[in-house]
Design brief:
Length: 516
């Protein structure tokens, strides 16, 4: 067992109102400059919808993420090393500008310099790239509020199954929810493995995936390999850029900008401990629907004395171990199991998880003539909600409706129980039965309710500050493909400080006593 630490995020989709504050503040902080006008490290999509860039989830077209070869070994969907080298100068699996959108500005000077006359001057849109007049036909949040509209929602790749026939895009049947997205900072990042120059790397100390701008040569293989299409190319510098997880703030013990400014308070940041030796094995799980459990099996209990002992031997500081024990992310992901990863079938083991949205289930029970206090009636209504289980399963569980249905039933039982408590009623037998049916007791229900509904700032963001004294100990670390030891895909990459590979020896850090 080799223990490493990872900063991870959970988002409660029930709280997202689609205000795009996170996107705007991220844009102002990281991509408000020449060359990345079209790039949104954080964007909020409306689901169902085709997303940003268009149909990024269609991996038959874009060839992102990992797949298994005939021998059950991991390989990039974009192909092995030889295929990538042959397509180095002609890569057909790259989104074009129209798949994102053409960034525009406006002819504001015309408003100021137009002579007096009977006509009202206007500021026409002009392309930021060419400077020529253009028409605005698409944008990063073009589908906002258009969920269920047949003009766009029908193109959602997640509506490709046989069950999608029952999704009728009519006023009475339409549904939508908002899905904030950023780089997943995966445990098994395909972008890192695909990079020919070794510019993409995963930091050993906190798991954040970054781009070394000095090494980047603009081959764009990382753009193809990322199944979430969260790597962008700066057209002014020709180099790749991506979400940095606001690492300067993380190193100072502060939350990311998108988390800090989130109006709905739906984001949680915390530390997860995981066994780096099991990442390759988990990503190579044969059945896609078993990948969720396989990834959860990689995470380690921060309260386990054996895990703590190995973590200390690995040089993880004591305050980081304390942060892992207080982590809201661990509680939501591994303890209560109400958070799910986005598209686990991509086999990147993403580290941004989501609590799926819950439709007004009690209203559905009443409309069907059922008893809102009967757990059988309530749980049965979960399978008939306006947001189909199959759709949520296609997003979060590789199509396993039982898992996502179980999460929604747990959230439903929690709401019913806490409603009775908040109204001053004693928890009746039906409420207690519902809790027990989903594996919760009174103390756990109250703790989960505290996390999901009324968590304070310090409970939502548990981010330990970086230790400056660790910097020198990381300079000897080798970089490479995160799964090279599991699949034998490539040799070790060039030397670079602070990078992590599953094929490298245990990291050398200062002793835990040095952090007392």
């Amino acid at each position: 067992m080799r223990v490493l630490a990872q900063i991870a995020m959970v988002m409660n989709l029930d709280k997202c109102i689609g205000c795009h504050t996170c996107s705007v503040t991220c844009k102002q902080t990281w991509t408000n400059r020449t060359g990345v006008e079209y790039a949104w490290f954080n964007n909020v999509e409306t689901k169902p919808g085709i997303g940003f860039p268009r149909r990024y989830e269609d991996q038959e077209r874009w060839r992102g993420g990992w797949t298994l070869d005939r021998r059950g070994r991991l390989m990039l969907r974009s192909g092995g090393r030889v295929r990538r080298l042959l397509s180095l100068f002609s890569n057909p699996h790259l989104p074009a500008l129209e798949d994102y959108y053409e960034p525009v500005t406006y002819d504001y000077d015309n408003l100021l310099s137009a002579p007096a006359g009977p006509d009202l001057p206007v500021a026409r849109p002009r392309s930021v790239l060419t400077g020529r007049p253009t028409a605005i036909t698409w944008g990063a949040n073009w589908e906002d509020g258009l969920g269920g509209a047949p003009e766009h929602a029908g193109g959602d790749p997640n509506l490709s199954g046989e069950w999608a026939e029952k999704v009728r895009f009519e006023f009475e049947q339409t549904f939508l929810f908002h899905l904030p997205r950023l780089c997943e900072h995966c445990l098994n990042p395909a972008c890192v493995s695909a990079c020919p120059s070794g510019a993409m790397y995963k930091r050993a100390e906190d798991g954040i995936v970054l781009v070394d701008q000095d090494r980047c040569r603009g081959w764009r293989m990382c753009v193809t390999a990322c199944p979430y299409k969260k790597v962008y190319v700066n057209h002014a510098t020709g180099k790749a850029e991506k979400c940095t997880f606001c690492f300067p703030r993380i190193e100072a013990g502060q939350p990311t900008v998108c988390s800090e400014t989130c109006v709905g308070r739906l984001r949680y940041l915390g530390l997860l401990l995981y066994d780096a030796d099991r990442v390759g094995e988990a990503a190579a799980t044969p059945d896609e629907q078993d990948l969720l459990d396989a990834q959860r099996g990689v995470f380690l209990d921060p309260r386990d004395p054996d895990v703590i002992a190995v973590a200390r031997e690995s040089g993880i500081p004591g305050d980081w171990l304390e942060a892992a024990r207080r982590s809201p992310v661990y509680d939501l992901v591994a303890r209560y199991r109400v958070a799910l990863p986005l598209h686990p079938e991509y086999r990147t083991l993403p580290m941004v998880w989501y609590v799926p949205p819950l439709s007004p289930v009690l209203d559905a029970v009443g409309a069907a003539g059922g008893d809102q206090d009967d757990p059988d009636h309530v749980f049965a209504a979960v399978t008939r909600l306006r947001i189909p289980l199959e759709y949520l399963a296609s997003l979060f569980t590789a199509g396993d409706t039982d898992v996502v249905g179980g999460v929604l039933m747990k959230l439903t039982a929690l709401r019913s129980y806490m409603r009775a408590v908040s109204l001053g009623d004693a928890a009746d037998e039906a409420d207690g039965t519902a809790l027990r049916a989903v594996g919760l007791d009174d103390a756990e229900a109250r703790d989960l309710h505290r996390l999901l509904a009324v968590a304070k700032y310090t409970d939502r963001y548990v981010v330990p500050a970086a230790h400056k004294e660790d910097a020198a100990a990381l300079t000897a670390v080798e970089s490479g493909c995160p799964v090279e030891s599991a699949g034998g895909l490539s040799g070790a990459g060039p030397s670079a400080g602070g990078r992590v590979s599953l094929g490298m020896p245990t990291l050398r850090r200062t002793s835990p006593e040095g952090h007392a």
